[in-house]
Amino acid sequence: MKLVPAILAYIAVLGSSAAAQREIPKTWDERALSEWATPLAGLNVRPGHISASDYYALRVENLRTYPVYYPGREPEGYWDMIQRVGPKPLIAPDKLKTKAAWVEAGRRVFDEADHLHVRTLDPKFIAAARSQETFAGGDAEPLPDGTVFGMRWVPTARGVALSFSNCSNCHLLYLRDGTRIPGAPSLAGVSRGQPRFRVPLLRVVFQANHVISTAAPFRVPDESLGISLYRRYGVPWLKEDPNERLKGMQASDVGPFVDAGLLGGALSRWNGSLFYPAKIPDLIGFKDRKYIDATGTHVHRGAGDLMRYAASVSFAETADFGPHHVLSTDMQRPGVRLSDEALYALALYIYSLQPPRNPNPLDENAKAGQKIFARERCIGCHTPPLYTNNKLTLAEGFTPPKDKPSNLDVMAISVGTDPGLALKTRKGTGYYKVRRLVSRPLLARWIGGKLGRDVRPGPPQRHARAWGLESAGYQDSCHQRP
Fold it and tell me: What average pLDDT is seen over the chain?
């Protein structure tokens, strides 16, 4: 009988190892890419992508990075260690024998991967990162462990470089009590107040590297701020492109838009918009989602698509949209990427993320909210247990083309969400995905405000008619015009 537990344990190990040794998806697979992106509203063509041969010609980078400590908080001997340790591999695939080991490797990629095209060996930036003067303004608080949010040391063959976090710069939330929530938007706790954990030197290092400070993987020529802004956000196929006004903007004009976005938990990323910024997405529960980005810019069919998206935004963007080519001929791609193995480990780690414990008790108020959720037919779109039906809704004013891709599951309704992001940006598909209501930071506060302000007793049919839901079988009073 004693053999039974041993046999079962052996079978479990074999199963775990088999799972870990399964074939790693190819990140830049032409067949998978062909139907991956959603066609753009107004063009009805998918954004372009670099060829697989060009992608795999990019040099693979595989270096560990280490945190930068707040001046005065650095452990004794730490800087000497950083200078002596030399380049170490970020990931060692040949040593990963179990799925758990792959997930742990993915955690390291999530925590340590940096913006490869922004690394600097400039002595003045290295010194500034260790200088109290850099932090004298009080804009950046140290994290609970004394480190600086988003800043990394990279020991390379040429010396120690300063760089900045990639994944964890946007998708790692620190609560007021110091609790660390990987996968949650880093700005989720801002709640209309100033961010506590800013990243010093980020902007000046980006500028010194001639890199657009929205994480786009390009080095740009010297050109006016206005032209640079239009390269980031312009939508040349729109008859009345609101981004035309960017061409005449000065730095003092841009700041208020950026700050407003940050206060709302949003960033004006490359291909996004200064006027219609998208909130940083929550990666917890990503495995169960069918679409990527708020506007469903890409389908999510498995780990390969998540790998593909991480690669695209980090080092493989083309900015080609049908006949429209945004990049100038003298813009340079740094020519470096992470390995397929690193991206696969990252995907497995993101898939493993779980929401933190809900601090809100199921009290009488919550039970009352549960009844409202049922009464208002919220489950029609936010269906348990995922609290999304994983479908797309129409942006107000958008009519899908008759030849829309068959892999898009579209509800023929609009709930009145501001159409700017979906129709007036390069992320504009004409759709919004139905949001997942599990693990939505600050969601309860938003719903409370909506219910208290907008949802009033009365015939729900009135709201169904207002939103065009009645013909679809819904009687919904949650989404109303502001």
Answer: 84
Evaluate whether residue 400 is within a structural domain.
Answer: yes
The strand order across the sheet containing 147-156 reads 66-69, 147-156, 159-164
Q: Say if residue 102 is in the same domain as residue 192.
A: yes
Q: How far apart are CA 416 and CA 437, in angstroms?
A: 18
Establish how many alpha carbons lie within 13 A of residue 89's alpha carbon, considering only the half-sphere containing its beta carbon.
Answer: 10
The DSSP 8-state label assigned to residue 94 in this structure reads: G
Structural domain including 164 reads 11-352
Q: What is the pLDDT of residues 115-150, one digit of tens each?
A: 998 899 999 999 999 999 998 876 678 888 999 999
Q: Rounded distance, CA 130 to CA 34, Å?
A: 47
Calculate the CA dihedral of residues 305, 282, 480, 267 and round it to 10 degrees: -90
For residues 407 and 46, give the distance between their C-alpha atoms in angstroms, rounded to a whole number.
Answer: 14
Q: In 357-419, which residue ranges form alpha helices assigned H by DSSP?
A: 364-375
Give yes or no: residues 242 and 337 share one domain. Answer: yes
Sort 291 into a burial class: Cβ within 10 Å, 0-12 / 13-18 / 19+: buried
Counting every residue written for the chain, the total comes to 482
Cβ contacts of 104 within 8 Å, gap of 6 or more: 349
Tokens 């209309």, residue located: 192
Residues 404 and 279 in one domain: no
Q: Do residues 275 and 242 lie in contact, with contact meaning Cβ atoms separated by under 8 Å?
A: yes
Beta strands in 200-299 (DSSP E): 266-267, 278-279, 291-292, 298-299
Identify the domain boundary among 304, 329, 352: 352
Q: How far apart are CA 348 and CA 211, in angstroms?
A: 30
Q: Please state, in angstroms and rounded to a whole number, the distance separating the CA atoms of residues 72 and 94.
A: 39
Q: Which residue has better confidence, 40 or 455?
A: 40
Q: What is the mean pLDDT of residues 454-467?
A: 32
Residue 420 · residue 397 · CB < 8 Å: no
Residue 468 CA from chain centroid, whole number:
31
Domain count, the chain: 2
φ/ψ of 181, rounded to 5, equals -125, 90
Place of tokens 């061409």: 247
Rg (the chain; Cα; Å): 24
For tokens 């020519």, what's the residue?
Answer: 335
Burial bucket for residue 208 (CB in 10 Å: 0-12, 13-18, 19+): middle
Same domain, 386 and 348: no
Which residue is associated with the tokens 């190819």? Answer: 26
Beta strands 298-299 and 180-182 are unpaired
Separation CA 429–CA 395 (nearest Å): 9
What pLDDT score was predicted for residue 24? 95
Whether the Cβ atoms of residue 345 and residue 102 lie closer than 8 Å to each other: yes
